[in-house]
Amino acid sequence: MSEQVTPVNTRKVFVKTYGCQMNVYDSERMTDALSKDGYVATDVLEDADLVLLNTCHIREKAAEKVYSELGRLREMKKDRARDGRELTIGVTGCVAQAEGKEILRRAPAVDLVIGPQTYHRLPEALRRAKGGERVVETDYALEDKFEHLPAPDRARTRARGVTAFLTVQEGCDKFCTFCVVPYTRGAEVSRPVAQIVAEAEKLAEAGVREVTLLGQNVNAWHGAGPDGAEWGLGDLLHRLSEIEGLARLRYTTSHPRDMDERLIAAHRDLPKLMPYLHLPVQSGSDRILKAMNRRHTAAEYVALIERIRAVQPDLAISGDFIVGFPGETDEDFEATMRLVETVFYAQAFSFKYSIRPGTPGAEMDGHVAEEVKAERLERLQALLFSQQRAFAARCIGREIDLLLEKPGRMPGQLVGRSPWLQPVNIDAKGSEIGDIIRVRITDAGPNSLFAEAIG
Ligand code: 5AD
Ligand code: SF4
Q1: Best mutation site among 17, 26, 58 for ligand 2, i.e. most ligand atoms within 8 A of its Cβ?
Q2: Which positions in this protein are listed as binding [4Fe-4S] cluster 1 (predicted)?
C-alpha cells in the first residue's frame, strides 16, 4: 500500500463542514487555498491524505460531534500507519478557536488546529505539521485574511453550482448572553466594497446566478463607497445589483437592531433582492429578551417587520428561537408562542438553550429543566411547522420565477428555489441548470413544492 497511486503533487483533502453557511464558505476558501499546494478536494474519506473538520461551537451537541468524529479518525490514522500511509488531521473553525490546545490534549491524532481568523495560513501550517510539529494557530491575525486568500477559482466555482455564498462581514459585537460567536469569530469586521464587488464579479463570470451575502451580523456591514461616502448593506446591495450576470441577491443573518431605512428600501427598490428575510428574535418575552441582551422588545420587532412588509408585502420571514433560556417561565414561553402567531414565519429554526461556558448566560440563575425545554420546543416546532406548511399551501396557484439549481430525483426533473427559498420540483424539458424560468406552483409537499413551466 505504500506505493501510492496518487503522485506526491496531487494530494487529496476531505473537508467536513459543520454549522452555519459561513463555515460552508470558509471550507470552499480553504480548499481553494490548498489547491496552490497541489491538493484536490475529494468527498471520499478513504482517499484523503488530509482531513479537515471545519467545526461549529454554537451549541454543546455541535462541539461533541467533533470529538466523536476525531475518535473515528484516530482509528483510521492507526490503520493507515500500519500500511505505511500518512493521514494528516486538522481541526478548523469555531471549536478550534474556542478550544485551541485543548483539542491536542483530548484528541492525540490531531496534527493542526486553526481558528477561523487564520485559515489563510493553512498551507504554511500544513508544512510545519508535516515536519512533525503539532500546530495551533488561534490568534486573531493582524493581516486581512481575505487579502491572502485566492479569489474563487473559476472551475471549482462552476462545479459548485449556480448559487454561491460570499462573506461580507464577520464577527459580532452584540454579545447576546447565550452566544459564543463574539468569542469564536471575534469583533465585527466588514470587508471593503472593492473586494466584495471583485469577488461577486468573479462568481458571476463563473456562471453563478444567485449570491447570498453572509455575516454573523450581515446587516451591520458598513464601508466606504467609491465616492468616500459611508455605505450600509442597502447601498452594497444596490451596487451588486448592477452586476449583470447575477440575477438574485440574498443576505443572512440579520439583527433587528441593524435594519436601517436604506436596507428596508432596498427590499422595495431592487428587483434582484429576494423577498426573504432571516431575522432571528429568539424569544417573544421582553423579560427574556432583556436577559439575552437583545436590546429590543417584542413589540419593536413586530413593528419592524410591519415596516418592511409595508414596502415589500411579498416578504417571507424566517427566524431563530431559543426555548428554556435561564429564567424562562411558562408565561415567557407563551409570549414567544403569541409572537410567532403574530408574525407568521415561512421558515424557522428553534433550539433548546444550550449552556456555553464563558458566556454570561452560563452563570445566570434559573436554569430550566431539560424535560421542560423539550416540551416547549415540541410545542413551538409544531406551531412553526404548521405555519411553514400554511405558507407553502398559499403558494399553490402562484406564478413565480424559478432558478434551476440541480437535477431532481426523477429523470428529466430539475430542482430549483422559489424566491422564498423553498425547493421546487419541475419537469423542465428544454431548460437547464442556471436558467430562470416562469412556473406555476401546482402542489405543496411537507418540504418542497411542485410546479409546471408556463409560457
Ligand atoms: N443555545 C441554543 N441555541 C443557540 N443559538 C445560539 N447560541 C445558542 C445557545 N447557547 C441559536 C440562536 C442563533 C442560532 C444561530 O443558534 O437561535 O440565532
Ligand atoms: Fe457555528 Fe457560529 Fe461558528 Fe457558524 S459562526 S460555525 S454557527 S459557532
Answers
A1: 58
A2: 20, 56, 94
Q: Which amino acid is at 223?
A: G
Q: With H, G, I as helix, E, B as strand and everything else as coil, classify residue 315.
A: coil
Strands of 78-194 (E only): list them: 88-93, 112-114, 135-137, 163-167, 169-170, 189-190
Where does residue 293 rank: exposed (0-12), middle (13-18), buried (19+ CB within 10 A)?
middle
- Asked if 14 and 43 count as a contact pair (C-beta separation under 8 A), the reply is yes
Ligand 2 in reach of 57 Cβ (< 6 A) = yes
Question: Region 354-366: what's the mean pLDDT?
Answer: 96
Query: pLDDT of 225-271, one tens digit each?
Result: 998 999 999 999 999 999 999 999 999 999 999 999 999 999 999 99
DSSP 37: T
Length of the chain, in residues: 455
User: Residue 3 pLDDT > 50, yes or no?
Assistant: no
Looking at residue 375, its pLDDT comes to 98
Mind listing the pLDDT tens digit for each residue in 189-204?
A: 999 999 999 999 999 9
Q: How many whole angstroms separate alpha carbon 321 and alpha carbon 289?
A: 11
**Distances from the Cα of 229 to the Cα of 46, 61, 224, 232, 390, angstroms:** 52, 44, 6, 10, 43
What gap in Å lies between CA 437 and CA 400, rounded to an integer? Answer: 8
